[in-house]
Design goal:
The structure is a single chain. The protein is an alpha/beta fold. It has helices at residues 17-28, 44-47, 57-63, 102-112; strands at 39-42, 67-71, 117-118. The longest helix has 12 residues, at 17-28. The two termini are 22 Å apart. The relative contact order is 0.15.
Length: 119
């Protein structure tokens, strides 16, 4: 995200789980954030992530007055659906993945603290 924001020196920061957790922790604990944001949509990695002190990201979000949620789709299959014609992008029609184990993942996310879902 830093590179997209025009911070060229960000390429020097390694893209590791620890660095992503540090950045997310900083964002989620920003003073006054809940005055403008009521819910945070998390990816699967973030739902189970902890900050450097061992605190769950979900707890940081809740302690700062926001509701944690989860993105439940698994993106789309770029190969496309077999047997469909190729479209303008050169591949068959695509479909979103994630329905096969949605119920189990939703239950696990709820147990971890997510209180809403986004497809």
């Amino acid at each position: 995200p830093w590179l997209r924001a025009g911070h060229a020196e960000a390429k020097e920061i390694p893209d590791t789980a620890e660095n992503r957790a540090s950045y997310r922790s900083m964002c989620f604990s920003a003073p006054g954030l809940s005055d403008h944001i009521s819910g945070v949509i998390l990816h699967w990695e973030t739902l189970f992530q902890k900050d450097a002190s061992g605190k769950d990201m979900v707890d940081i979000i809740k302690e700062n007055g926001m509701i944690p949620g989860i993105k439940v789709d698994k993106a789309y299959d770029k190969k496309g659906i077999w047997g469909t014609p190729s479209g303008p992008l050169g591949h068959p029609e695509v479909s979103t993945r994630g329905l096969d184990d949605l119920q189990q993942r939703a239950a696990e996310a709820y147990k971890k603290g997510a209180r809403f879902a986004k497809w």
